[in-house]
Amino acid sequence: MNINSSIGIFDSGLGGLSVLKQFIRFLPNESYIYIGDTARVPYGNKSPETVAKYAAECTEFLLKRDVKLIVAACNTVSSVALDTVINVAGDVPVVGMIKPGANAALRATINNKIGIIGTRATIASKSYQNEIEKISNVKTVSSYPQACPLFVPFVEEGLQNSPAAKILAEDYLCKLRNEGIDTLILACTHYPLLSHLIQEIMPGINLIDSGEHASVSSLRLLAELKLLRDESEKFIDKPDIKFYVSDLPQNFYQQAQSFLGFDVGTPELIVL
Amino acid sequence: MNINSSIGIFDSGLGGLSVLKQFIRFLPNESYIYIGDTARVPYGNKSPETVAKYAAECTEFLLKRDVKLIVAACNTVSSVALDTVINVAGDVPVVGMIKPGANAALRATINNKIGIIGTRATIASKSYQNEIEKISNVKTVSSYPQACPLFVPFVEEGLQNSPAAKILAEDYLCKLRNEGIDTLILACTHYPLLSHLIQEIMPGINLIDSGEHASVSSLRLLAELKLLRDESEKFIDKPDIKFYVSDLPQNFYQQAQSFLGFDVGTPELIVL
How many CA atoms lie within 13 A of B249 on its CB side? Predict the structure, then answer.
């Protein structure tokens, strides 16, 4: 790997495109390889062993393409299989979602009540809760976890702005609102697409997008390793991204457009 | 200067606290020196010569305190006096608001229509328009500048959520909305406090907070210069910030609280 190598990002499906978007925002001059394991999505309700096996396969795929950084965009992978990714990656640095997200939430909260919404697997793993407990030495923080299993299929169907999504969000979030949390971790890559809705239900709340903070952590890591490309003086119209998917979902283009805001072209179908 | 030196941030008044907030978000382990030149605020309607003189004095004050980076948080200073700051700063790196903000807007826009709202001085200087033109090599971008002189006093008075602020914002922004812009640069440090209101008037628009992107640019710069402190494993409850003001406004504490979300203690009164 060298300064011109790509940054590799993988996710169980298309949710990780919200993480990729944050990377492009802060590191527009890098090139990216994105894997969406769309043939085996979702990971959120599978066993840790199976998730670890899939994560290892995605990592190996990226390593063959000489990436300089591996980003486990999937919160489920980050929660239950990050050690596997790190082991497989060897010398290549790895960034997950939990540490950056938990850190950002701790810095943002004032009343020390942090909500966490994610898939059943992420919530059950207690990954965010444990990380918050580990790093909050002087603060006594209460965590309020809430699994929101239907948010992913709603986003996948493009129904994130529907009246039903609003009622569903109200149902999922009313308990957290009643607890008086002031900070909410979006512990699933799909959820940033619901942030407008969530903000409406809980005005004034700090929404933590783990992908945003993972991208800034990666920027720092790569800068310190002298592995960042030069900042171009000129604007680059189209980010340099190569997309791989293990299955081509019917509405891939609309989903990708709504995640990224631009046309991603045709992804390459792969077998992992 | 060394790795433990502070990051120096200066502004004409308290608006720069919104920039400081972004620095704390991404660089919580650094120490900061903040100057608010509250005795001579606002800079936005003064001549470029006077603004340059004041900016030089703020820079000299920070240099005496051995800072490792100087951040011109004020968009007016960044627009008309950044060269002065760079000259006075000598070997100490300087970050302004224009380049990071213009770059972020160019990356965010899809329909290539970018609105810019700021003080009369910032808008008249055409700083953002010129920077966008300079760096947008492949894109043809239209800029829509709009001075919003009353936004600053509304925020200073703590009236950013009042019905009058809403009517005022509607007046200022309706032209930009009719132009169909999809991206809006908040080219004044006070405006992030109005972002909720602006988002309400222009739903779905990309709001660009130059301070956010200036903080990430600074992170990169300091990382490459090996001047970043280590990331602490443990959470630091209270950021290490020393506040200096040239006058103590009556409602300083409420304003600072609403900018930063935490109590800043008593600032030190200085003569610049």
Answer: 21
